[in-house]
Specification:
single chain, mainly alpha, three-stranded mixed β-sheet, 16 strands, globular, Trehalase, Glyco_hydro_37, glycosidase, EC 3.2.1.28, hydrolase
Amino acid sequence: MVESDTYSDSGPVVPTTPLVTFLQHVQLTAFRSYPKKQSADPKSYIDLSLKHPYNLSTIESAFEDLTSESNDMLVPVEKFERFVKQYFDGAGEDMLHHEPVDFVSDPSGFLSNVENEKVRDWAREVHCLWRNLSCRVSDSVRESPGRHTLLPLPEPVIIPGSRFREVYYWDSYWVIKGLMTSQMFTTAKGLVTNLMSLVETYGYALNGARAYYTNRSQPPLLSSMVYEIYNVTKDEELVRKAIPVLLKEYEFWNSGKHKVVIRDASGYDHVLSRYYAMWNMPRPESSVFDEESASGFSNLIEKQRFHRDIATAAESGCDFTTRWMRDPPHFTTMATTSVVPVDLNVFLLKMELDIAFLMEITGDKKGSDRFVKASKAREKAFETVFWNEKAGQWQDYWLSSNGDETETWKAENQNTNVFASNFAPIWISSFNSDEKLVKKVVKALKNSGLIAPAGILSSLTDSGQQWDYPNGWAPQQEMIVTGLARSSSKEAKEMAEEIARRWIRSNYLVYKKSGTIHEKLKVTELGEYGGGGEYKPQTGFGWSNGVILAFLEEFGWPSHVSIEP
């Protein structure tokens, strides 16, 4: 593996708010004061809001008094809990339940191709979960933003669930896929309106609607959300509003530190993108974990680079996985900013195709042609930079230096490890319509070891990280399955349906056992939810619900096929 050149961390940093900085101190005190087994999720402290009538300076003074007798921020648990109860409203109390205006318990024609009654009944239950996840930001967030880490949003939201008590960017795409099946078009449009408001305010869609997420984005799927809604509703007003916002987001991902240039053997420069967080300190929501992870680094620059790579992994949405490690599974070798990822460039290729399509709808032929041309250029880069003919898949590319200068493509810089993301390009029409290519990809996927009893594995490495073996995630299932199903290959279509059925069946079994839908599955076994990573398994769950409903709409469920194993 080619090592990255040594460089100082001089990249951009977006400052956070005084409240977030203070709550990190509260989080650290909690972490040091509670016995290990009793310590709460560190995010729950960063999600607190100030209780009326206290202001931040009053609470900071009270906190200084609380910790003044301790050198190491350790205080008696009872005293700490009294302090939190007196001065803060609980995490999530500034997000209120909202009854969606477009929800009906059994929509007309809902999943008519699901013939199995047991599956239909369960699908209705999954559909009904949207009510549990529907919220609106409280008025106090808009009136007194400095008292909250939650950000104001104009419309109600669908949250993922559990610890994720705010709206998230890339999750929203698969939520919207499900909302389309549930015929909740107003709710779906509201999610897009919220994300567009973030782009208008910050220049990019934030990782999530929190003050501590302003330093990074997430996989760019806003154009895909607009496309999905337009496809069903033919809402041209939404398209017209979206185009200038999408152009702003497109510029963010294709300029500055996100932009990389790879020169091929014939001297042609391919413009691609990477993830790059605007942050080089511990992530506030996981500050205590990041401090601990970085404790082995000897100097400040090494720590800053590590923290940026951790935050950048969070921008990728896949936090964490051996994909981002120079020397897997060693966590301290995280080097996300040195990776040109296959899937990010899939999302950007899709964005180019979407913008071209949306511009054509509004009559902007010249603009549409420009984005068609951009998409052709990126397709060419896929063929040259990512595609590995021998492996029959696309592979992430490791940068040799810091990515600021054009660098020459080297075959040995492709990451030859197998990940689900290597097959993400099949989601794109220009790839899934190429019969010869589909044949190679199907063969490679079949022989990859990724197809497991309950779906597609994220990787083949059991690292303890949640985006690795033995876990599978809804987004990767949906992208690969949808791509295969769109091809003209009988074998690809059959493979798509088989993977979808495995995924649906396992979610059903987990739901029947636990009463909940989970964020991720352990796909090596049927009916087991996933674990690993820095937090406990989460339930709810936005994108999982969305993909279950989308798969059932796509493939149905025959009456004679049992959902039980």
